[in-house]
Amino acid sequence: MMKLRIIAGVCCLYSVSALASIEWQTEQGKLKLYGDVEFNIDAASKKHQLTSVRTSAKKDFDANDSDRWDINGRILIGLDGIRELDNQSYAGFSVQPLADLSGKVNLDDADFYFGQQNDWRIKIGRYEAYDMFPLGQDTFIEYSGNTANDLYSDGFGYIYMMKEGRGRSSSGGAIELTKYVGNFDFQVNAMIKDGTTLFDDNTYHGYKLHKDKNVIYLRPVISYKNNYISSAIAIEHNVVNNAYRYYNDSKGKWLDQSKRTGYGLTMSWNSEGDFSKSSEGILVNTSFAYLDAEQEKDFTAGVNGVWNGIGLGYIFAANDIKAFNPSYKGDGEIYAKGKYKLHTINASYLIADVMGMDNFNIYLGSYWSQLDRDKKQGGGDDNRYGARVRFKYFF
User: Fold this and answer.
1) Across all residues in the chain, what is the average pLDDT?
2) How far apart (Å, rounded) are the C-alpha atoms in residues 55 and 144?
3) What does the pLDDT look like over 240-254, one tens digit per residue?
4) In 3D, which of 262, 265, 263, 324 has the Cα closest to residue 293?
5) C-alpha distance across the termini of the chain, in Å
6) pTM (predicted TM-score)
7) Which residues pair with 284 in a beta bridge?
8) What is the DSSP string of 308-355?
9) What is the torsional sign of CA 264, 270, 276, 279?
10) Among 203, 229, 244, 382, whose CB has the most other CB atoms within 10 angstroms?
11) CB-based contact 265:241 (threshold 8 Å)
């Protein structure tokens, strides 16, 4: 026998929005159908990026696109299923197709999980593991889609945020084990994929990468959460040597670029004593990330806050690049080895419950970024700025 009913749900990280979802109760458990619309109208000084940050929800976004105006977005349809037994055992799945304005159909999550309530859980498939760099009300710092693919566009600065082993790869899957102990969660995520997909066009600092085998990223996270405070520390490390390499003409040898280890720390505070109601009070996030890679060291620090629908954030990143192909002919702003600093300020404003609908919001967002070069690169800086109107509708 199947029963149909309408329930209330919650969506969006660190912001609360009511939405209608449809739930079926069957002999095998519960099924829930839901979704959301996210369309953006963007205007920017240039689409030539200073960083590898994606500022478009389109999966085929090109950092070298010179268009000054852009309308982009996607519609997500989600289907979740779960079965829970009286002995606290459970199993479930989630699938979330995406249709974007380019006419393509992509996928957010597709995963299967099982475990014991308040004890342990195993998840396998396509998903994102623990967020080690939350951005609060991230209207114009967009990381939707494949956060583990094409993060590094050659010739652009890298804002490292502990995402290389987080998940949602187009070239492989992941498996995660989580153990719950009171307010602590212990999580280990293992992602297997083609490591060269991290780099747009499989190019790193002017060198073409050659894949020998898949990488395996291990990403242990220890997190703590109560009503007011959330914090976590994590490491992500590729355990496969010589997974992909590049040939350095100046040194006359192949270098293992797959040597990559990242470290992260994040802390959040919510004044309301309930993170699900953080939009009603003050939310502050602070995060740090450090990447130790072959011929490169990257450090990122960020702080952001949300109060009464007003969001403000600052991100600082430092790139120390120790090798760069002198014959590089790309379009980026980084074209030689050296030290680079990046500054990004973003702001947003939430217009909630548009026309009295508690499932329809409009976000206004803006950003300003600056890349500073050291004296070896001739000094100077480059600036970019832009604005966005985002329409967000839940159903």
Assistant:
1) 83
2) 10
3) 999 999 877 666 778
4) 262
5) 25
6) 0.85
7) 269, 305
8) TTEEEEEEEEEEEE----TT---SSS--SSEEEEEEEEEEEEEE-SGG
9) negative
10) 244
11) no
